[in-house]
Queue: 4 jobs
Job 1
Amino acid sequence: MYEKLIVTPQRASIVLGTAFALAAIHQYLFYDHTYGISYPMFVILFYLYMYIYAGDCLRRGSWFSRLFTTVIILLSLTYGWFANGFFYVLNMLVVPGLISLHMAYMLSYRRPNWARMYIVYAALEHVLLQLPAHLPTPLRMLYRKAAGRMQQQHKRLAGKILLGLLCALPLLIIIIGLLSSADGMFQQMLIHVPDWLPRLSFTEGTLRLVWIVMMGFILFAYVWGFIQPYRRQSLSSSLVADQPASDSAAGATIPSASPAHDWQIDKPNAAYPPLVMPRLDPIMLATVLVVINLVYLLFVSLQFSYLFGAGQGYLPDGSTYAEYARSGFGELVLVTGLNFVILLSALYGSGKAGVGLHRLNQFLLLILVVCSAVMLCSAFMRLLMYEQAYGYTVIRFLVHAFMLFLGVLLVLAGLRIYMSRLPLIHCYIVFGLISYVLVNYIGMDRIIAERNIQRYEQIGELDQEYLLTLSPAAIPMLLRFSYEHQLPELRKRLHTDNEYVVTRHASWQEYNWETHRAIQQLRLDRPL
């Protein structure tokens, strides 16, 4: 059955119809709704749509592709499971970005390596070039289908009419919207036409229709860009044996692009030129490493007295624990990040060198890794001291997580110095994806609330105002804490600050487990 879909002359029409159906589901799930369980539902439907209709473009599956899919599904599930505001916003960028990279890896005719920057180029090319190039394709399909039965003299007239309708559509939407706002009777008349939309205002119905049309065009253009990719003819000298695609189904529906636009359809497996990166001279690299390592060794030798002495009361003269913790923390993290860039540049950008010079550079890089690790440990301990003095926050938690992440990357880079076969970039990508999923699922707000409660039990200080800004994940713990430590004001604030969430009637598309659990706890607890 799938083979019949690939070769049928109506393939493009079937894909377009499914795209509009998926667009209708999209507006139903997300129009006037916040993200919830609806988000992973649509992600799964989108993957089915892509893999069903562009299945003939799929590259051979790999363990990384399965890992990539798992990461994307897990991150999309966070919208239905967790209620952390930071990751709610961040994943709006991360999840679509990962999906774009995954689609480029699995479906792009360029067949990019997932551990090379070229996969980013392939993803951007598809979104910025292939997708816009195919947005008019449904209109060309409609025009050719209608014009196929017309005589030649009628085709130009039909084309002009279609173009006029397209130009009039946005004006029509604006004008009707303005008139509806200006005259209530006119709006009431539109509400009852047609009769099957009596409870919808014309404005809402129009927006939903526009949403479906736009999303339908975008979804179709996105998948069709993989089925029939275009390329600039100016790149033909860089590609190998590029000819127009011969897919019978696609060719039967969508014609080759006009030469006036300098486009042509590319082969699915067309080769692309390798990126040639400039190489660092090994002698120059050794000189740089010697100079910066001398500075780092001097810094580290002085740092050790504070790094291991601060916990025993040996602080710089005139410094308190909070002042010591705060001073230089950001600078240490930035320097460690800079060292990381230098390390990667040396490992992957160094030119060929003799045995002696190569070993010298390896030794210098190892010193760089050790010094970076010491500075990272110092910054880590400074942050711990600062948290003990001022409490735990989301930003401090994320900085801790980032430093741990950077520490593991440094260890892997240190291994790569003497293990040339270690696929460092591959390890970084896999570890980065797993780490990001772990940070999403670890329950950041719950941990922050728990650590602040422990701090309160130790020193008797608590920032209630900040705890009240945490996501609903912390509400059950804070309610229990308010009972155990006789804090009626905290309990009262939890009820008053979340009254809107408790009384609001959310649709099923917005369901979130942590929010649901918090609402149940607040409803079971009688407010003061």
Note: The beta strands are 230-232, 263-265.
Job 2
Amino acid sequence: MQSNTYSPTAIFGSHTRYVVPLFQRPYVWNRDEQWEPLWQDVRSVAERLLEPQAVTAPPAPHFLGAVVLDQQSIPTGYIAVRRVIDGQQRLTTLQLLLDAVRRAVQAHGFPADEPALRILVRNEAQIAGDASEIFKVWPTDRDRDGFRAAMGEDEVPGQEDSPLVRAHGFFFEEITRWALDDGEGVPGGSPQERLNALVRTVRDHLRLVVIDLEPGDNAQVIFETLNHRGSPLLAADLIKNLLFQVAEQQGADVERLYRDHWAPLDGDRWREEVSQGRRKRPRIDMFFQAWLTMRLRREVLQDRLFVEFRELLATGGTTAAALMEEVAADARVYQGMVDAPYDSVEGLFHYRVVRALDTAVVAPLQLWLMRWDGSDMPEEQRHLALGALESWIVRRSLCRATVKDINRLVVVLLRAVHEAGPAQAGKAVRRELERQTASSRYWIDDDQLRTILRTAPLYRQLTRPRMRMLLEAVEDTLRGPWGEGQPCPRQLTVEHVMPQQWDEHWGEDVLGDPEAEQAREDHVHVLGNLTLVNDRLNPALSNRPWTDETTAARGINGKGKRSLLLEHSTLKLNALLAVGHEKEWTEADIDRRTEELIDHIVRIWPRPEQEGPGTAVVTENTAVGEGHGASGRNAAAVDHHGKYRGLWRWLRDQEQSRIPMGFSKVAEVAGVPLPDSAYNHMPHWYSYEGSALCRAIRDAGWRATKVDLDARTVCFVRSDPEG
């Protein structure tokens, strides 16, 4: 067999078909494990092409892996055919990506770029024997309809849920969003220039290792050998071998270097698999990715750890021994980040941001801040930096605003603290976060946070670790400086004060009144109705009534929920609940407690006041259409001529004061599709700045509440029901 490395242009540029045998498994790649990481890698290369230095120092190609092909005997004059022995998922996904780029270019790019991609996804129809031969890749029989639906120009009914269709749609949406980003999330350039960089990336800056079988090669044996599950080398193993080889060449005492610096990194804890999102990676490889990003102050891709380290060693002007000593020292700092106690600022940051919010991507900045001692970086500067970043992340997470751009923001912050120096690091981080105005980077302000948290069904929107962390933080604040000093216990369970099945013992006053029933249901999952209890008390509380009297009247043994909380819980959250509400727990009580908890959240994660042009300052009135912090203005309908005039007109003509709707119905009423951000980002419904949809709702005299991105529902409420 022969092995060569090729670009997509070399692989797909001629009239060739890559046919997947019928016995191979169907397409199984998915968004979390393959599509999204692939897009992030490709996007990163394209963004490096957009940087000025790319003219003289183009980025290194990105390797996609290997495929094994078997040449088929085809008569002269026909399209060449190769059978795909291994790598069919990779080849198929690459075709879906190429075609998604082509369609985005067709809509928003330079006209000359589309034909350059078309030849990579289509054979010429006039030389094709049948309709399927126009496709460069032809999958196994179970995937063919889905592939035609994704790649073809004609509709194939019944394939909406095909993973191939969803993969193509994912790439197209991400590419379009990236190309049209008008904020600071993407390097400079027009959409056409960005797409041109992406075209050059997918044509010439990706690489596949192609293994061509020769006559006599046993395809099955080679397939089994390539897919044998041995113990793969980690990037850290390659880095270690390189460092010690170079250190030996430089005359260093390698045995002493290993004993003094590297030996701890060979321990089991460093090779332990650690969760990062929905994937798991060895801790030591995660460390090297954070370390290289910190050291180079640019994004370092997972599959380029060894290459980037090798280049640093070759060009960094330091010896292997010195670099090894630096790595070992920072590895100790990295481990200290993980082990920091809960009662420290550093430990709380790691628990809340990295663990509860699952945002390990901040590790490069966290490592930079932690590696300085007190003589270089005053403690208050490190605490200021960690506090500002934690506030930025928590606020965006609570509002379900995207944090996908945070990896690039971390690089921006690294450059800012490097320029400012450790003595001013905290001020530099806060200043840089304050100046972000792009929708993907804006530091959510108090008014927008309050507007969203008042009605958001947080229990359904946040994962349990995130919900617990939020309530734990409030509990810690309530204990105050005069208490006994113990932090809130971890791993408690989230409890609904008014139970989820409220109709069993909490509904006699509203059952039969649809509007009152809905109002009660709307209050169940909001912040003010949630608290923490241990896993032993939780089942005892269940759906039982609030007071002892109601509990006895219903023939239920034991006491009411209030008494159980008062007697068995030591949390301040529950003490205030029980003491302050002796007779009942109603929707009005939930609303008041929601406001109280929001007050705590705003104080725990403060954001500096910011005014002036370019900031998305959103107040409660702004959320219903006041704009720029104006207050006291009547919210009656005003004339509107924007894109969503159909929705404006429809809302203006409604007589009721509360209208629940699905997103699809909103789009139908508006007469135009909703933007992707309406399906993915809560602020799009609440924020005046930059949201044409919100302006239409505002101008009709309404506001959006109860936005549920998972269920894709919203409830419109008249801003001035009396008017």
Note: The CA atoms of residues 244 and 254 lie 7 Å apart.
Job 3
Amino acid sequence: MIRALTGLSTRNPWKVIAAWAVLGILLTLLGQALVHRVTQSQSGDFLPAEYDSAAALRVAEERFGTKPDANAVTVLVARTDGKPLTATDHDRIGAIADRLGHRRVEMPEPKDGDPAFLSEDYSQTPRVAPALVAPDRTFELLTAQLTGNSSDPRMHDFYRAFRDQVKDEFAEAGMRTGFAGGLADLVDTTEAEETTATVVGLVMVGLIVLINILVFRSVAAALVPLLAVSVVGGAAAGTVVGTALLTGIELDASTPSMINVVLVGIGVDYFLFLLFRFREELRLRPDRPARAVAAEVGARTGTAITSAALTIVAAFATLGVATFGQFRVLGPAIAVSVLVMLLAALTLMPALLAVTGRGMFWPSRALGREPRPGTAARVGDLVARRPAALVLACVALLGALSAGLAGIRMDFGQTGGAHDTPAAATSAEIARALPAGVSDPATVYITADDGRTLTAQALDALPTALAKVDGVGRVGETVLADDRTAARIDLYLTVDSQTQQARDLVSGPVRDAVAAHTPTGAKAHVGGTAAIFADVSTAVDHDLKIVFPVAAALIALILLVLLRSLPAPVVLMAAVGLGFAATLGASALFFQHLLDEPGVNFVLPLVLFLFVVALGTDYNILIGDRIREEMARPGPARAAVARAVRHTAPAIATAGVVLAASFGSLAVNAAPSTQQIGFATAIGIVLSAFVLSIVLVPALAALLGRGIWWPFRPRRSRDAGHPAGPAAAHPRHDSVSVR
């Protein structure tokens, strides 16, 4: 199958390239235009229905008309001279709020180049109403409800139009305004980091190009992989978006960016594996047509690439069994994307090699000479001479990093970052005068059984009890639904709603008070940000206990089939398991202990497990398969390990640096969760490439000898895995040889 695909591609390279170019560009454009129609950022909507906060969301939508994509914006209004508001000022603010609540805000025209017919029209009449007055009367707060996908840049444009309209209205009355809330903070943060994101993206691309130029001494070998991967990545993202649109599945807002980072990393890796082997074969067979060499390289390297890709697919596909919807959608989406990249690795990439031929490495003269043994050869010799010492050193290093797991805490904070934005300044001003949770209250929803009506008097005991809970700063008035079969009570906590204290408060004392004082014949549910993430924490803990063993079992099965050995998969899985523990421990040491943050982001353990285990296993597959090939040749097992490291280490090292740089670019993002994912994944990939695959696994193989391949030990053959000829007698240090 693999040989048939690569053979077809290298026989018709221009047709394959043209097909990928057309399909890739089309899917990229459609994906970019439609992605925000299939994404949503409300974490509560990803919770299973049986969770308390999910039930609260349903009551809010069904009984109080709250829309799933409603965004609450808090508007601060104060006098420009800083004096306390007067009764006249309050009347004026109320009148302006009433006008704003009856005025339709039109959607701004799309920016140049954006297809208007594909853009979402968020034109609407916002719901604006007075909310609270500061105790010292220095400001009054209004609440505004804007409906739309908060991750959509077009929604950001609409928010800016609304914000400008509000500013102008109050400026005419001699008052200043400030804006806070999730949407306001997101828009301000996006604006603040726009330049940084652009610079980081350019630096990442430049770094990948520079690395490839230094390795191959060729501009084409540096640029062609990046261009090809960009086209394929766009096609993969468009495929995921189109599938979600057709099936009605909603993606998490972070999924498209995660797909892009994953595909750039692994796509460049796969291309590097092909390029290293292509260069090796061109050196060995200088008279053979490049197209024939490309076909052979695609077929031989394609087996390892397929196994590596299927490892990632299997790992992420296990997320389909998760209960938390954000995981359940993310896993299959990345799995589908990786399959698209695998198809490109077996078709587009060999076709590009067939077309460019030896020109891929111009102007380098490396094809005409045999490279001298370098660092990889010295490392291979060291591994063969001192395997026990290196195993102990690697285990000591990874064990020391794993010590960071002691006392590790999960952080569910969703704040936008450390930017000094107008929204952050407004939130700080509000927090100085009112309870910290005033702009994002927890809410208790009460529903009557059998359609009976409720009265505020019948519910008096509940708000009274809630007011006595330590940590509840203020209890709002009881608001009845139009049909009086449901009621809502807002709770303004004394701590920020996105902190661990808030989650502990609502999941403990608040829910206990609600359970004890809900009237007979009624049901009550606690909702709001703190309650949602308290339930998300429970769901994540449940999913980790399921996903980890299932993913590990699938990866082990793939290794068993590929390596045809019982000890080898155990060695590889033990190595990547230790690498995962070390990476997560290092992340906890850095973020939780060194930077004194609340903990590591709640998705980090799962993301690290999938990426570090899956991608780490990819590199181990490459080195393991080469070790098996070399052990099929006559001679001591340790000499075979030394040759395997010498041949494979440069490709693994280059691929590891490229992939780490790709993920590391996320570490400068303003969002703390994205920073942690970028930093931790980059560290994990570096450990996987340079510690596990280049040192630890080969050292263990040197200690175990050919027994690592029991019961199907490789048959000894004088020229196994090496073509005949003078060059074959001199193992090279810069090639990847896999079957």
Note: The longest strand covers residues 70-79.
Job 4
Amino acid sequence: MPENSTEVTAAGIARLAGVGRAAVSNWRRRHADFPKPVGGTETSPSFALSEVEQWLRDQGKLAEVPLRERVWQQLAGHPAGAVPALVHTGCALLLVRDRPAAWREITAVSDARMAKVLHLALNSLLTARFGPAIGGAEGSGGGGGTGYERAVHTPTADELLPSVPLLRAAAELAAETGARQAFEFLLGRQLAANPRQFTLTPPGLAELMAALVRTGDRPARTVLDPATGTGALLCAVSGPAALYAQDADPDLAALSALRLALHSDTDGRNPTALAVRTGDTLRADAFPQLTVDAVLCHPPFNERNWGHDELAYDPRWEYGLPARTESELAWVQHALAHLREGGTAVLLMPPAAASRRSGRRIRADLLRRGALRAVVALPAGAAPPYGIPLHLWVLRKPGAGVRPSPELLLVDTSEPAEPPMAPVSAPASGGRDRLDWQAVHSAVLDAWEPFEGRTRSEPDVPAEAAGRDRPGVSRAVPVIELLDDDVDLAPARHLPSPAAGGGPGELTRVRDRLTETLRLTATLTPPPADVSGPAHWPLTTVGELARAGALHLRTGGSGTGTGAAPVPVLTEHDVLGSTGPSGTLPTAPAGSEGPPEEPVLVEPGDVVVPVLGGGSVARVIDEATAGAALGRNLQLLRPDPAAVDPWFLAGFLRGTANNRQASSFASTATRLDARRLQLPRLPLAEQQRYGERFRALAAFEDALRLTGRLGGQLVQGMYDGLTDGTVTPE
């Protein structure tokens, strides 16, 4: 095996061949010529990628492997590690994009010669793009500060030599997808493969934070991220003239610099100035004299060793020395120190920073001087740690002679409002996989933009006149109300949820509707049942009907969105709760090959059954639900209307005994095998007679569900009204 060759694990071999890991284990046992391990451990051996590829090619198992998968395997198995390989790849992709002619000349020689020539070409490119390897002090104010080292170091020829095959393959991938998309794909795979090593800022959150630093239609021209991580926040900024970033991790700083460079300068005519540095931001600020239009920051949380003792007399602590336990307030003041007068900063903060007693003096001074403009509570799942509803703090640098605003905007999106007709039993929306970023963006920006515009142009207009106050969602709170002993800025404390009934007038409407629904429920109550002995019909199964062509079976959960026209998804919860589609399709990953996978769309008359949980549920799709995509853990039965009545099918599928005999109880979750479900062989006319009865039962069930929801809303609304004084006991 060549020295320093790329290695791959059994899991990587499985991905290359498009099989499961069990198949790779079988190949190792059954084929004496399967490549021998060259590294790893006894329980997790690694193999030479070149030998594995040759063996798979000889066996005819490598023909359909996508190029991007092969590039990823070369990167993941790089002898120097995946991160250095990703840095080398980013440098090469930047050269491919910016100097394509030079790249073609460089690749026309041997690998050893290419490594030497590539070193020189990259040194020229990186110097032109990021400045000299070592430079002097930076900042708009000139002078002061210390020298710096460039975040992206030029790799030597010896370092590049093992990467040459990877770089050639990455250039091929860039020719298919584009240099930026190729790097985004490889970076995304690296982050997904090591989730505990990186603290990520999700794209939806990054876009919201970037939107908050805009001034009307004018984007921020100069932006700083002092804890850049992988550069997600600065990538979300539109049309900047200059971007500045710093991170304590040299690898993250290098990846961020390359990512930002590949995101900008697509036309080469108006290049964005980039300055990315490595170092501890609080202890060794790389931009001591810099002032910018905006600061975006996702700082590390709950740090004790942030420099409290050695930074006690730092001039940045204009609002007070943060306590040792208040590292987040140190980042807040660092951001304010780098803003020009009137500039805006948005920081992601833990909720405890809004209420800890150790930070109340700094919070009070931020309020008195008008530096803190808004606190936004996000839903749980917006960013790691995903179980905590994090906050956004929006700050503005006070200007000389400008009167501080007398109000603080509080916005609470931590508990999105349920749809008006959602049943009581429906699960609360939210969470990492179900977060509705569009709704969060609308709630935050609809409150912030009028507030921001009024405080800049008409500071004396009352909050009510500006139309920003929304019960339970947003409110402009007078600063004087917040300056108590606690200075608690948590939105939930000052934005009590609106009454469940929506006020006395809405309570009356809910009561009237409940009365109508109770009357309808009584009408739909099934008549007394005629008692008779059990029927002995000839039976068939869903599987037999599928083989005969009387119905078609489809499984949900596949498919991705294109982003052009969002397709709602009928989820398992929607079927169980008899509600409208509430899910959204996932977006195809950046750099994915081929067109997006088409989802399964439901049609009127389809019967949908959940495959997990052991409950007897079947839903017939109506016109209102038609067109939605079929979600995960659901199976669709599409009957031929000339052979099988859909309501007859759905009714018999809900039989308890039928579900039990068609379910598997071997695992922790009961799983339904829809093919084993039985129904009687009856003429179509007889099926339709049963179908009408099943349809009436479904309507009665829906009425009962609505009655329960309205009854719960009325009861809770009465409790809220009586306790807040809007309803009197008479």
Note: Residues 205 and 360 are 27 Å apart (CA to CA).
